[in-house]
Amino acid sequence: MRGNVLLRVLFVGAFVYIATLIRPIDGHIAFNIALGALLGLLIVLIETRLRDAAITSVLGGLIGGAIGLGIANSVHLGLSWADTTDTKVKFVHVLTLIVLPYLGIVLGARNGEWLEPVKFVSLFREARPQKRYKILDTSVIIDGRVADIVETGFLDGALVVPQFVLKELQFVADSSDPLRRNRGRRGLDILHRIQKMAGVEVIVSDADFPHIKEVDLKLIELARTLAGRIVTNDFNLNKVAQLRGVDVLNINELANSLKPVVLPGEQMSVFITKEGKEYNQGVAYLDDGTMVVVDNARSKIGRSLDIVVTSVLQTTAGRMIFGRHAEAAAPGEDAGRRPRSAAQA
């Protein structure tokens, strides 16, 4: 920090020295000193403004300024037949020399993003709808539900499987741990199943980013390059991708949104499978895996039971339903309501 300040002071001092040496203004030396200091401070101010500017914006401004200067020179040459001693002609020359480079710098800096390789190449592509790429990560492939979603047609566009994801799947499938080995092999089977689906385009991408070690960051970089979306059920990858401006399709969020709404006071039929943590509680599960905790149902383990929903708790891990035995409800409560099966719930 101190080095930068010292460098700027020396830079301004150099301008002051040059101004006092050359003396572009006739008169007292103080005017030349003030001119040198003013020009030096102005350049330092421009430098501090450009420090946080994107390199593409700076390049765009330089290219735009050069083009504007070239056009101004062409206008000057085109008016060479005019009387250069005329004040109106001089004004036009000065105006074009200032306005056109200024407009070039402003427009070039504003549209400098088009100098990025991806956008620059897009200028020469055919004017047709681009593919909507969906990049699959390792966790969602091993999970397996993505195959059912693809089969129903809810995932459109091309499915991209990067080579580094395939390598990770193969590494898991070759693990000495039987559980990990089975998960890896299931992931490979899921990919094979998706590839055989009619009307589904699966692309195995060879794109890699050797300077990036983490697979999650490679997925994010690939999604940026393809302007696609990442399909995952990894909570951490979901958050990191969103922070980096990459769209994510989370299978778990989709599953939670498809769970039917259950309101307190509704009745349903459940099968008590085990006892709960608290005294005299029974636990049941709906078809979608939602846990149902039933009061006073410990003695009903292994039997179906009609219950009344008392509350619903939504957590980051999922949803829990609390209820009590319908026969234990107050007389007349929920009268006239028909019991709902677990599948309807």
In short:
This protein has 345 residues and is of the alpha/beta class. It has helices spanning 2-22, 29-50, 55-78, 87-110, 117-122, 138-143, 145-152, 163-173, 178-195, 215-226, 235-243, 251-258; strands at residues 133-136, 158-162, 202-205, 229-232, 248-250, 267-275, 281-285, 291-295, 304-315, 318-325.
Would you kindly provide a written description of the structure presented here, covering whatever features stand out?
The radius of gyration is 35 Å and the shape is elongated. The protein has a five-stranded parallel β-sheet with strand order 3-2-1-4-5. It has a five-stranded mixed β-barrel with strand order 6-7-8-10-9. It starts with a helix and ends in a 20-residue tail after the last strand. It folds into three domains: 114 residues, no CATH class; 125 residues, 5'-nuclease (Rossmann fold, 3-Layer(aba) Sandwich); 67 residues, OB fold (Dihydrolipoamide Acetyltransferase, E2P). The longest helix has 24 residues. It is α/β, with parallel strands linked by helices and 345 residues long. It is built from twelve helices and ten strands.
Q: Give the mean pLDDT.
A: 81
Radius of gyration: 35 Å
Q: Which blocks of ≥5 consecutive residues have pLDDT under 50?
A: 329-345
The CATH topology annotation of the largest domain reads as: Rossmann fold
**Which CATH top level class of the largest domain fits?**
Alpha Beta
